Amino acid sequence: MSSSSRRRSRIILRAAWRTLRRNPGLLWFSALLAVATITISLAAVLLGVGGELAADPSVPSASVHARAGAGIGLMAWFAMHLVSPLVGVAAASATLEALAGRPWSMRASLGHAMSRIAAIGTFSVLDASVGGVLARLRGRDRKGRRAHPLLAQLLGMAWWAATYLVVPVLARENRGGLSAISRSGTLMRETWKEAFVGRLVLGWLVWPLVIAGALALGLLVLLGVDPGGSVRALLLTAAVSLPLFAVASAVLHTLDTIYRCALYVFATEGVVPEPFDDPDLHELWYVQQ
User: Fold this and answer.
1) At what angle are helices 61-99 and 231-269 packed, to 10 degrees?
2) I need a surface site. Which of 26, 84, 132, 237 has the fewest CB within 10 A?
């Protein structure tokens, strides 16, 4: 990436950060998504344990456990794929209002997302199905080799591109799930340059989290602490690092939502949202003729 691209990337990040600072309440959507994900995971585990305890002794336990595990896993899989876009549409609705300088509330945004539950559900089924296909392609064959890694990577990138703007589309436009994907793909073809830069910039920000975790483990080694044998040291490290990691993850997730919504506004209205209206970005934010 050239020096001018790196400079524009920093400006994009600052603009997204400026929007977040003006609207810190947007972080609550990321927190809600994290809580919902943890709740679904715990519920799946508890249901699995309960199913084992309540298994009919007259039926072979292996068969009962297999069917129960498959059913619980399928429900949890779909619930995960439903909750994420549901909260995402609510967050996008609030973000679009914030970018327009209008007041917003978490309750109203969640209510708007619930009014779009049919379209969100359709998209969730499609997303879960594609995710299942990609998981099989990334799996291993009977000889322990990866089945189709290159095909999985290409299809994964194609699906990411097709659905990159689907959440703001569902939040703003009265479309069904399949139509929203088609609309997102069209907008993505017109703004692929901007989407690529945004993905690259936000992707780089993950590395400080990885480095921070590695430094924490390195500090334990330097202090002569055995990470596998000192429960107290592990608990102390977790107590310090996990909240920081959770906050940083919420910030990154929210910044990504802000950027996607700004890109959607630019792609559909041909204008740059105010926080992103910087002279240095005029070369990047351009309307396709």
Assistant:
1) 50
2) 132
Give the DSSP letter of residue 154: H
Element (H, E) at 199: helix 192-204
Question: How many residues does this entry show for the chain?
Answer: 289
81 CB neighbour count, 10 Å cutoff: 22
d(CA 212, CA 223): 17
For 92-112, write each residue's pLDDT tens digit. 999 999 998 899 999 999 999
Strand partners, 140: 146
The model's pLDDT over 210-247, given as tens digits with 9 standing for 90+, comes to: 666 666 656 655 655 555 555 665 566 666 666 777 78
Which residues is 146 bridged to in the sheet? 140
CB-based burial label for 257 (10 Å; 0-12, 13-18, 19+): buried
Nearest to 262 by CA among 14, 32, 63, 78: 14
What is the residue-wise DSSP string for 52-111?
HHT--TTS-HHHHHHHHHHHHHHHHHHHHHHHHHHHHHHHHHHHHHHHTT----HHHHHH
What span, in angstroms and rounded, lies between the C-alpha atoms of 220 and 224? 6
Measured CA to CA, the distance from residue 183 to residue 165 in angstroms comes to 8
Give Cβ neighbours of residue 91 (< 8 Å, ≥ 6 apart): 26, 29, 30, 109, 167, 254, 257
Name the residue with tokens 């659905």: 163
